[in-house]
Model the fold of this input.
Amino acid sequence: MKRFAIMLGIILVILGLVGILHPNFDYHRREEVAKIGPVSATIDKPQRATIPTGAATAFLIGGAVVLLIVLTPRPK
Done:
């Protein structure tokens, strides 16, 4: 269980850093514009996805909190 929590914290921190440092991702979407019998015409449209800064910050802080909770030594 501890390994899972550590990995989750690391993944959240990495996702948060990526979202803050590189918030825009470009990708292409193929769309069919016409179809006549067996022949079809498609167009490749460029799209842009933006990661909100608040979500990236929440991932970063959440991952840091998970790591702090898991890695802090507990008194016995």
Notes: The longest strand covers residues 24-36.
